[in-house]
Amino acid sequence: MEEINFDKLRQLMVDNQIIARGIRDERVISAFYETPRHKFVPENIRQDSYEDCPLPIGNGQTISQPYIVALMTESLRLKPTDRVLEIGTGSGYQAAILSKLCSHVYTIERMEALQKKAEETFRGLGILNISTKVGDGTLGWEEFSPYDAIIVTAAADNIPEPLINELNESARLIIPVGAFFGQILTLLEKNKGKVSRVEICGCTFVPLVGKYGHKY
Ligand code: SAH
From ligand 1's centre to the CA of 103, what distance in Å? Predict the structure, then answer.
């Protein structure tokens, strides 16, 4: 079989799906050029890694569409000194992108099999500034709080209260909020203790399951 040129496919993905749709932050764009998405995708569908869609990663979960990862990342306006909490490690791709833009990523996944796999992928790529744990991310990760930014990559019907409490005084939180089959990507910004809320666009994520997650 002919070898797939993943570097070329990645370049096309960034140009056609991310830049062409309006992502402008140069640091975010570089992170996408540099992160090998195909290493985060199961081997049997690796040829589809740079397609314009979410993909199954096992255990009924998905790696998000590249553009959505970019949009959520850009919305957080990360500084190199920021510390970021992610809920829903999944494949680890979003965490790997974040790790290039901030000082440390803390990421929580409720499914141990996915956490283990993501941890292995980070090690394989020599990424050292991501800490992972298995657990219910809706409870937050108090030990390393407060965070400069929090990203939730699963859908909730409400913003989990513990996460709002773990934001520092001028932090951002991005989360899909809404019903089971369609949500609104929502950005919260804390500024000197005051919280503002902006709705960005419609989206569809797998459900956030946990104490402060979706009520079935
Ligand atoms: N960010 C991931 C995509 C995540 S899919 C990536 O880049 O690949 C959403 C993930 O959230 C799933 O793996 C799911 O198991 C996880 N999840 C759902 N509820 C959770 C919770 N309460 N705490 C931690 N992880 C959760």
Answer: 22
Does pTM surpass 0.90?
Answer: yes
For residue 88, the ligand 1 atom closest to its alpha carbon is: 11
What's the CA-to-centroid distance between 52 and ligand 1, angstroms? 20
Give exposure, 133-145, as e/b (b: 16+ Cβ within 10 Å).
ebebbbbbbeeeb
Contact indicator for 85, 140 with CB cutoff of 8 Å? yes
- The pick from 208, 212, 214, 215 for probing ligand 1's pocket by mutation, whose C-beta has the most ligand atoms within 8 angstroms, reads 208
Q: What is the pLDDT of residues 7-51, one digit of tens each?
A: 999 999 999 999 999 999 999 999 999 999 999 999 999 999 999
Domains of the chain: 54-203 (3.40.50.150)
